[in-house]
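Kindly inspect this today.
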Amino acid sequence: MASNYPTVQYGSRGETVRQLQRALNQVGYSLEVDGGFGPKTKAAVIDYQKKNNLRVDGVAGSETMGSLLSKIGTVSGGYSNSKQVLSGVSDETADALYRLEKGYTPSDEVKAAQSVVDSMNALKPGAYQSGFEGQLAALYDEINNRPAFSYDPAEDAAYRRYAEIYTRQGKAAMEDTMGRSAALTGGYGSSYAQSAGQQAYHQYLQELSELVPEFEKNAWDRYTQQGEAMMDRYELFKGEEAAAYGRWQDEMEEWYKALDLAQDQYEGISKQDVDNYQTMLTHYTSKAGKEQAASNGVRMNNGKVTATAAKASALSSTASNSLQRAMDNYLRAGDKDSAKSLATQYKSRMTATQKKKVESLFGRYGMSVGW
């Protein structure tokens, strides 16, 4: 069975699900190929797993899809993966068909494209963290719990200063009045002098009293201005917060766009890869039938895969470019280990030029791949 087939399950969407639905339909099910892994697709997967002694979990991964693709080969041409073929079939055809009937295995291009998708998680912006939450909360409490306006002249510093001035002036006027009144009576004090002095004193206090409404209005203006200043600060922090959150949303939107692009590229490459596999399976099944038509009887293939088929091929430029993108994503995120793991995994398959590009990529981040 294929060991690296992408896993899809209930709720999954995309080209991989469509491939699964097409494969299920080819072995007897009647699903709408809509790319949505819904209840009907899950029921079909479970039914297929039960009938073929697979793990019954409703999840389609390497085991289930590999089995399905193997069944498709059998249905299409009747060729057995026991490598038993009719005489007259060439070793090249038998070997190719034997490998194909083992099930679909993603190509280097598909695996590399999947690595790009996986590496995008390393670049995902973290959860939004407000830099103004504390200030906004404190200022809100200050505004919300601010005492209602009240006025007490005794607590008004401006009023007290005026009161001291008017009191001094009133006392001075009282003394002056009493002195002038005493002079009229030959220098002796009299009730008239005291009464006149008191009147002069109270006149100043009356004038001070008449100023209280003005002092209260001034106090109200200050109270209002302070409140407006607090609201201005609060709105300023809110604006800064909104701007910061907007920048974070922009980063998330750009990340999702890049992720969608990587996913679309992966699904396109994966679909083409599966289509190529099914085309090759059909081709070699047909070719085996034509070759064996000229001969009767049954023979056993020697069970050996040709040297050309067994030899690991070099990475294609498409796969190499995708792997470099994935490594670049990891390095940008500071995840050197994941980048190095990819490089090490495919080192033996890389050409000298591809290795130099990988080394140059690590060098741009001041790192060494460690080969």
About this structure: The mean pLDDT is 84. Strands lie at 84-86, 298-300.
